[in-house]
Amino acid sequence: xxxxxxxxxxxxxxxxxxxxxxxxxxxxxxxxxxxxxxxxxxxxxxxxxxxxxxxxxxxxxxxxxxxxxxxxxxxxxxxxxxxxxxxxxxxxxxxxxxxxxxxxxxxxxxxxxxxxxxxxxxxxxxxxxxxxxxxxxxxxxxxxxxxxxxxxxxxxxxxxxxxxxxxxxxxxxxxxxxxxxxxxxxxxxxxxxxxxxxxxxxxxxxxxxxxxxxxxxxxxxxxxxxxxxxxxxxxxxxxxxxxxxxxxxxxxxxxxxxxxxxxxxxxxxxxxxxxxxx
Amino acid sequence: xxxxxxxxxxxxxxxxxxxxxxxxxxxxxxxxxxxxxxxxxxxxxxxxxxxxxxxxxxxxxxxxxxxxxxxxxxxxxxxxxxxxxxxxxxxxxxxxxxxxxxxxxxxxxxxxxxxxxxxxxxxxxxxxxxxxxxxxxxxxxxxxxxxxxxxxxxxxxxxxxxxxxxxxxxxxxxxxxxxxxxxxxxxxxxxxxxxxxxxxxxxxxxxxxxxxxxxxxxxxxxxxxxxxxxxxxxxxxxxxxxxxxxxxxxxxxxxxxxxxxxxxxxxxxxxxxxxxxxxxxxxxxxxxxxxxxxxxxxxxxxxxxxxxxxxxxxxxxxxxxxxxxxxxxxxxxxxxxxxxxxxxxxxxx
Lengths: 278, 349
Known about the structure:
The complex is a heterodimer. Chain A is mainly alpha-helical. Chain A contains 12 helices and 2 strands; from the N terminus they run H-H-H-H-H-H-H-H-H-H-H-E-E-H. Chain A has one domain. A two-stranded antiparallel ribbon of chain A has the order 1-2. The longest helix of chain A has 35 residues, at 105-139. Chain A is globular, with a radius of gyration of 21 Å. Chain B has 11 helices and 14 strands. Chain B is globular.
């Protein structure tokens, strides 16, 4: 009983920070939810309703795939929006002077991280919810159960990307710099490096790349998920050159890499944060 | 009664690259004492406070704080056991929330009893005249209001030790008086208070002991009275009932110089004053710089009353605390890093 009580006392600051973070970022959540909801509605409904030539996908799964095509982009912006200032803002705005003497830094980062993760998952859940409703509207029931698998992968992807951004936030000096740097890396640098690596060694699968991992969000909706390595890439010939495009990682690989990203980046961020002096 | 140490700094130093910000500082603060930390910008005041708040790690040395068992405990050991400490460091910067939400969060973080949080928030907001702003976002607050909220957050969990870095910054005179009053109230409650400030008047009014710091080292640490004893010259403010007519001023000053000659400080530091007797026509008073002790002071008073009965009537006769501290400060703290050698001076006494 005493052990439980001690554990509760240890966890309490995390819980308070978690709740506080939810309140603090509630406006961000509302704004982002509205934007994401509108995008979901635009992609999932308005396109088909307003442009008669824009025909519906052949199946509910394919419809979800089309709708989730933009997911990684929304997530990158969302993660940078929510996590860009998670650590560096305490230093740049000097709010750390008030908070750090009151709470252990590890507990502070855990509380803040969980709070922002919850909000971002909430935003994404709204997008999925709209897509599911429209999927039922257009294709009727039963619902393609793989949409839940995709949602689970999206959560893992959020964890990986948010940890990556949190790591940057731990050593960058300003919130804006963190947001710009991480958006550039996640949107441009990863895909550029992927292309260079594939060009220099087509057999090398870009398992280090978060951009590559994000493809699992849509590919998991495939009725026949690629069973062999050869099915997971396409070779394209262009002017005598053969370019290899890796379509998706395996599910196990995707989950493992994203979890590794989460653990390593969060661990490093915590170490840097705890050692950083104000 | 034995004094009980609640904070002890043991030879702490802090280096930033090649810069030695704090150099081998040792200090003991007893329960219920109010300590003023005074020094110029960059002297190391905030660095010392930040090390006590664990925002910075000392390069060497250790910091001890009293724990719940009444023993001094290393700051880096289990923080849960340490007695409650409240901090206000630098100009406070808050998250963009309402005052209530922020204070509730801070009280929760510091394990203040849940059932009493609202009462405590209302009490403090009322005391600092911020009740109407309870549910307003902090970004709409003025600088002074933000500073008040900074002080409130340091006190929200009713700490035993209160550490305030420049608490008067951004406050108007009325608010400064209110805060001084509240600090006195905290003193009466037996709280230990540690204040870093540039405002010598505030420090001299409320602190039991003063630590003078320059270039990262303590130049002196004692009560104001004991520090005054180290001064080469002391000052008396003598106010008279009616102003002296300009044509009489010269002869009166001459007579004063003659009659008070044995007591006057003739080697006065020109930074303090060029002459040992100064008349201020606006305040109808003299500033007299003398050398000596309390007996000298009473002798001066006797001379002024007896010998100058026809020239003026002494209305008040005081030793201004602030001015003394200013002079201690200017005597002990120099720009070039040459510091007043306290031990040497004490040896001479």
